[in-house]
Specification:
Number of helices: 15
Structural class: alpha/beta
Largest sheet: 7 strands, mixed
Shape: globular
Bound molecules: nicotinamide-adenine-dinucleotide
Strand content: 15-25%
Strand order of the largest sheet: 12-13-14-11-10-16-17
Oligomer: single chain
Helix content: 25-40%
Radius of gyration: 23 Å
Number of strands: 20
Distance between the termini: 64 Å
Length: 467
């Protein structure tokens, strides 16, 4: 097995460091440590676990600036986003599940003179496997409910963003978590496969692509592991003709270009009512031309660098496909031009926000998840038509509708096949609400009370009384 892999900065293309790949014998040793850690941790009271999780959250808050520097180096995302979203959301998930930890309990069922009760028990050793778009936040969204419920977790970050998970490991130890309860392993597909095949791991939670999701599920069948899958999407945003066009354009921009378009829930299929399509497009172009693309450490930057050269080329390939299939490119579609003072970014993976119009449902850019800053504008004429077209995808992660008619909003959303829906907003995912997809976007929920069910198993105890 390969011993190391190299980690590169998305914004400069320069090597950051080499990372040691966790070897199989080291994973075995991590599993042994997790078994010992689990024995202790699972007998802590909820309140004892909550105190440690809360301590970890406050360390994250006090070190947010330092952590954000690392995350920006590794991901290429704008620093304002890391400071305002990634780390606050990570800390909030720990605080939220710390709050729930003491209240994780079963029920009592009276059965005449006898009775039964249920216990929500931890599952055991859980593996978390992360994607590269929100590395630290994903690690916390998985670790917080898992640990609150009394499990141990072995987390593998994406090989493209290995840095911040190691920081989370240090933070948990500093907060007082028993050794072995949270551990990090490093590597790519092979390490992920080893975890998903392992008989001593009882649960696996993946954030990644559809194809990886299927593979993880096949491997997890080895010992019938519990599985949660947070996978890709090709989500619709439906803009009705009664909604404020200026607001609609802003929401569409946030729903496509935040985190330079590398967000699983992004609404890359923008369905605009035919009556307002031209006006919407004008407002959109006006706004998009003001978005600064470039230095991710600059507080004014709105789009940073894409994660890797390979991904950048894949997104460019989709743009070419869009053009060749007849979609009309009205903005972006290429890398920005750099001034001499910005020459360090010339090898970075920067792409201008890209907008196609005159799109059709059967075009590749409208069907495939691109996972970059590429918006497709489609027009529609009536409600039933747009519902059918919005659902005409293998994915079912998210959907948004913008309208002043709340009857219509609920009527439409009730017929949409997606796990995460927004009315008159988009991409807001506070930790209090369950998050997760339908169809090829996976199953199982992160966040909200529902996440506890994903990290516990229910034991029923029947108690016979003689009299
Ligand atoms: P990916 O599937 O290539 O990799 C995800 C993780 O799985 C990485 O850590 C990788 O090393 C690991 N992995 C790869 N092959 C594996 C295997 N056979 N067994 C076990 N682990 C394996 O995805 P990515 O490129 O890192 O992320 C982009 C994808 O993730 C997109 O499809 C995006 O929509 C999705 N995503 C979904 C959510 C969500 O919450 N639904 C959030 C972020 C990203």
């Amino acid at each position: 097995m390969q011993k190391t892999f190299s980690n590169y900065s998305p914004s400069t293309g320069k090597k950051i460091c080499d990372i040691e790949i966790t070897q199989n014998y080291e994973i075995e040793s991590a599993i042994q440590k997790a078994k010992i850690g689990f024995k202790t941790w699972s007998t802590f009271t909820g309140l004892q676990r909550a105190k440690i999780l809360n301590r970890a959250a406050s360390i994250i808050r006090s070190r947010t600036h330092e952590l954000a520097q690392i995350e920006v180096l590794d991901t290429g995302k704008p620093i304002t986003e890391a400071l305002e979203v990634d780390f606050p959301s990570a800390a909030e998930s720990l605080e939220y599940f710390a709050g729930l930890a003491p209240s994780i309990h079963g029920d009592h069922v009276q059965l005449g003179k006898s009775f039964a009760y249920t216990r929500k028990e931890p599952i055991g050793i859980c593996a978390g496997i992360g994607a590269w778009n929100y590395p630290f936040q994903i690690a916390c969204w998985k670790a917080a409910p898992a640990l609150a419920a009394g499990n141990a977790m072995i987390f593998k970050p994406s090989e493209l963003t290995p840095l911040s998970a190691n920081k989370l490991y240090e933070i948990f130890l500093e907060a007082g978590i028993p050794e072995g309860v949270f551990q990090v392993v490093q590597g790519g597909r092979e390490v992920g496969e080893y975890l998903s095949l392992h008989n001593d791991i009882q649960k696996i939670s993946l954030t990644g692509s559809y194809s990886t999701g299927k593979r993880v599920m096949q491997n997890a069948a080895n010992n019938l592991k519990h599985v949660s899958l947070e996978l890709g999407g090709k989500s619709p945003l439906i803009i009705c003709d009664d909604f404020d066009i200026d607001k609609a354009a802003q929401i569409a921009i946030n729903a496509n270009f935040y985190n330079q378009g590398e967000i699983c829930t992004n609404a890359t299929r923008v369905f605009v009512h035919q009556k307002v399509k031209d006006k919407f497009t004008d407002y959109l172009l006006n706004k998009v031309s003001k978005l600064k693309v470039g230095d991710p450490y600059d507080k004014n930057t709105k789009l940073g660098a894409l994660i890797s050269k390979e991904h950048f080329n894949k997104v460019l390939g989709y743009i070419e496909k869009g053009k060749s299939e007849g979609a009309r490119l009205i903005y972006g579609g290429k890398a920005p031009e750099w001034s001499p003072s910005e020459s360090q970014f010339a090898n970075g993976n920067f792409l201008l926000p890209t907008i196609f119009t005159d799109c059709h449902d059967d075009m590749t850019i409208v069907k495939d998840e691109i996972f970059g800053p590429v918006m497709s504008i489609l027009s529609f004429q009536n409600e039933n038509e747009v519902i059918e077209r919005a659902n005409n995808t293998a994915y079912g992660l998210a959907c948004g509708i913008l309208t002043n008619d709340l009857n219509r909003a609920h009527r439409v959303i009730n017929q949409i096949q997606a796990g995460m829906c927004w009315i008159n907003s988009y991409n807001l995912s506070p930790v209090e609400i369950p998050f997760g997809g339908f169809k090829a976007s996976g199953f199982g929920k992160e966040n909200g009370i529902a996440a506890i069910d994903n990290y516990t198993q229910l034991k029923t105890v029947y108690v016979e009384l003689d009299n």
